Structures are given as C-alpha cells and as structure tokens.
Amino acid sequence: MRALIHYFFFTYIRTHRYVPPMSLFLMMLIVNYHYVPNPILDSYSFTALLLFFVMGWVTITIMHAEDEGQKQITLIHTKNKRNYYFALIINCMIVGLILSLLAVAYPLVIHAFNSELHLVHIACGFLAHLSLAILSIALSIFFTRDTVKSNINSWWGVISILVVTLVLAVARVEFLRTGFISWLVPPLRFSMEIMSVGDDISSIPAQAYWQFGWIFIYSLIFMLLFIKIVQKKGTF
Amino acid sequence: MILELQNVTKRFKNKLIIENLSISISLNQVTAIVGKNGSGKSTLLKMIGGLMKPDSGQILFPDEQPISIGYVPETTPVLIPFTLLEYLTHMGRIRGLTKEWVEKRIDTLLEIFDMEHERDIRIVHFSKGMKQKTAIMQAMLEETDLLIMDEPLSGLDQKAQADLERLLLSLKEQKMSIILTCHETKLLEKVVDQTLIIQERQVIQMRSQQLHDKLINRVVFELSNTVSTDIVKNAIITDKEIADGQRLVELHISQEQTNKMVKELLGRGASIKLLEPLHVKETEFLRVLKGEENIYS
Questions:
Q1: What does DSSP say about strands B216-224 and B271-278: parallel, antiparallel, or unpaired?
Q2: pLDDT tens, residue by residue, B231-246
Q3: A95-144: per-residue pLDDT in tens?
Q4: Which of B51, B90, B95 minimises the CB distance to A235?
Q5: How many CB atoms lie within 10 A of CB B121?
Q6: Interface TM-score (ipTM) > 0.95
C-alpha cells in the first residue's frame, strides 16, 4: 500500500497536472489577502470554500493521472482493487492536507488579520479547510472514469455536485435541515456555521466537534461506498 | 495444462460475449486466441488475468493454487512519467517484491530485452516498440507462470514487430507459458503452438499439427467482370475492381486443386498475377476474420 501511495504521488507530481488547480488556488489566496487587515474566521471560511471547489479539480486529475492501459497494469500488480482506490484517495487527501496547511499559514506569514490571533482560530481554520477538502474528494470521486464513462460528464458532474452542495448549504429551506433528509445532504453548511461565530472566541465551540466530526464521517461513508461500487465492477 | 476454463459465460449490457466456453491452456506453450473484432478475445484474456469476473462458469488452476500471471494490456501505456528503471522499480514494489529482488530482476530483464542503454531514459521518449517491450518487462518482473498479451503486435511497425517476434521466440525457448491475442498472421506461423479461434461466442480449437500437413497456394488473378468465378467461389479471399471492367481476385486453393482451377480460369481469359505457397494457418485465420466456413476441413 505504501509503495502504491508513493507511486501515485510521484505520478501526479511528474504529470504536472497539479499546476493549474494549485496555481489557481494560490492566486485566489494572494488576491483574497491583498488588502489587510482581514477578519480571521470569515477569511478562512472563504478560502475553505475555494479549496472545496479546487479539490474537485484535484481529485479528478489524481484519479485520472494514469492512462487506461497503465491502470490495468497497476491493478494487476496491486492484486487488490480496494487498495488501489484507497491509495488514490489517500493521495487526494495528502494534497488536500498540503493545501489546507498552506491556506492557514499564508495569512499568518503575511500578517493579514486584524484581530488578535489565538490557537483556536488556527485550529478552526485548519479543520474547516481539511474537512471541506475531504468532503469535496468524497463527492467528486463519484464522477471519475470508474463510474462515469465520458470525460466531459466527469467534469460537469463534479462541478454540478459541488455547486449544488453549496446551494443546499446556503439555502434557507427548512425541510433540508430536519429529519432523515438532513443526514443525506452534504454537510457543507456545518463548516460555514462554525466559521461564522465571529473572531471573539476563546475556545472551540462545543458543537464544532460533532459538526466537523460529521463532515469527516459523512465523507468516509461516501468514500467507502465508492470503493464498494468500483469493487463490484470486477475481480480482486 | 496451466489453467482450464469450464463453461464460462460473459455478458455486457445483456449482450452475450462468451457462452459456455470451455478450454484448457497448455503448459510451456504459446497459445493464440484469434477472432474478429468484438468477438470477445480481450474479454477472455481479462477473465484469465483476473481483471474481470465471468458471469458464470469457473477458471480452474492445477493443484487449486492461483498462478502468478503477468499481463500486457492491449492499450500500451503512453503517458508514463518515469524512466524505465523508475517505472519497473515502482511496479515491482507495488507487486510486493523486495527492493533487492526488483533490482536484480530489472538487470536481468534489461539484458534479455536488450534495453540496458535505455534504463535511465524517460519512457515518454520511447518508440512504440520500446514501449511495448516495457509493457512486457513489467509483466515479467516476477517469475510468472503465465504471460498474457493482448494484441502485442498491434500498432507496431515492421521492424518493431520483427524484434518482438524474436523476443517471443526466445521466451518460448525458455519454456514460458504465453497466451496472446493477435491479428498478425505472420506471428502465428513462427511462434504459436496452439491456436484457439473464437467464433460466435465459442472457441474452435485448431491443432497446428493436423493442419501443417496441408499445402495451400495463394493465387491472384486479373480478369474481366464478365467472367464467372462460380467454380472457385468458396476459395475467394478478396475480389476487388481495379479498372473499367477489370478486377483482381485472390484465391487460396489446396495444392491438389490448384492446377485444375488455374487451368479453368486461364481458359476463361484470366491472367495470373501471383502464385505462391501459403501457410495454412494464415489462410484459416483470414477465413475466420471473414466469418466463413473452413473449406479445408
């Protein structure tokens, strides 16, 4: 598994497919913090949303970094389809983690915030970025070539699901937030709610633990579901 | 026998690709699977290689132990962003082989494939033939019991085909069990021990020994459109118009029939453009691709 993660990571690096999404994300970060000072949690919330969309792009490029012929070869060597997809998803998470750290660290380095900065702001900022990055991966993998045949449909699918998720998060529709359906709707709004509490906090709000926790659990469930679906499509 | 398929059936979107197919693959032999495009050759290889599950039926191995399989896909990877050495090391490590083993094995493979000088060159700069060799090398990283190759000569130029053919012959001399699909009839003649033809979702096993004895000639005539070819209609391979009122007809005729049929057509005003002996397996292969009955049996 380690060899597989290592191989996918270097394949992604060597194919240079990371350049467009990461450049876009960096540019947006620079533009966002061009004028100082800025509010802390609001700014982090905005860049976490940016990361949510950029990670859709990253996920597709990582999952499609190998061509079809090579994919068959790698699968034969891996001897285990589940490990193959786990390794790909872990690579997406590694990129999500790197970009989350960058998004949290950059404004600190350039002193872009107005209020006094505490560890709780950094922790909330990091969790907001990482949780949305992972949620984006979990939603986007369903539109990779393993489940969607056309490349065009992959891109439309990813854009659509991420935009719909954002719309559902900001829409003030009561029935989406109650009962069984609230468990199905991607929990993007939880991150936005936590990050809108204002900068005057001295500790992580109690509800933040289960709200961030639910985003991670929700994402994990969808990732496992994806692996189950692709596993059913063949041997191993 | 290295493996056996028993009553294997495979469907795609309710289309039956392979139906109740039962074959056995011989140990230390080169087996070719031939058939028309879409006949299910690649599907069969993928099932043998474990990339695809049969809908029903079984794939059995001797001693009930799964064998080590090397797989060369039909689509040669083109976007490999590594040097040959890096790539083979990655594939070996993913397979679970130790670093020391992989290093030694790569040295051996580079020597067998005559690629020592390319070890540190990026694969994207390789020719198609070299990429195909790379695909075969990765399949042999472990000492495999069975090497599966899907259309290994497809898309290669003549020189690369000849190189690969030599390589396959050397692997054959090393008593390697190989199963491949192909369109190139030339390959069949020199390398293959056993030919399996897929036709109408079934396999017809063609034993090379019984067919070796039959001598076939290829005859190409130029003749007028008005001349009837009824007498040789079962032997026609191609019939195409070349100029006003003239056409070229290629026939594959058994040795015993050649004199009689040539005499008959010359008598009708045809002229011979080519007459040469032909290997019977090549003839049989062409007929299968055309979906005709075997006239020699």
A1: antiparallel
A2: 787 777 777 788 778 8
A3: 999 999 999 999 999 888 877 888 889 999 999 999 999 999 999 999 98
A4: B51
A5: 14
A6: no
Spell out which residues of chain A touch residue B51, defining contact as CB-CB under 8 Å: 72, 75-76, 234-235
A178 burial (CB, 10 Å; 0-12 / 13-18 / 19+) is: exposed
Whether residue B75 and residue A234 make contact (CB cut-off 8 A), yes or no, is no
Q: Edge-to-edge strands of the sheet including B15-25?
A: B15-25, B3-12, B56-60
Residue of chain B whose alpha carbon sits nearest to that of A234: B52
CA distance A8 to chain B (A): 10
Mean pLDDT of chain B: 80
Taking only the tens place, the pLDDT of each residue in B81-105 is 999 999 999 999 999 999 999 999 9
Mean pLDDT of chain A: 88
- DSSP string over chain B: --EEEEEEEEEETTEEEEEEEEEEE-TTSEEEEEE-TTSSHHHHHHHHHTSS--SEEEEE-GGG-PPPEEEE-SS------SBHHHHHHHHHHHTT--HHHHHHHHHHHHHHTT-GGGTTSBGGGS-HHHHHHHHHHHHTSS--SEEEEESTTTT--HHHHHHHHHHHHHHHHTT-EEEEE---HHHHHHH-SEEEEEETTEEEEEEHHHHHT--EEEEEEEEETTS--GGGGGGEEEEEEEETTEEEEEEEEEHHHHHHHHHHHHHTT-EEEEEEEE-HHHHHHHHHHHT---S--
pLDDT (0 to 100) of residue B215: 66
What is the domain class of B3-208 according to CATH? alpha beta
Report the 3 state secondary structure along B141-152.
CCCCCEEEEECC
**A230 to A69, A233, B225: CA distances (angstroms):** 17, 5, 57
Domain boundaries, chain B: 3-208, 214-290
Which CATH code of 3.30.70.240, 3.40.50.300, 3.40.50.2300, 1.10.530.10 fits the domain covering B214-290? 3.30.70.240
Cβ pair B164, B132 in contact under 8 A? yes
Each residue's pLDDT tens digit, B39-66: 788 888 888 887 788 888 888 887 777 7
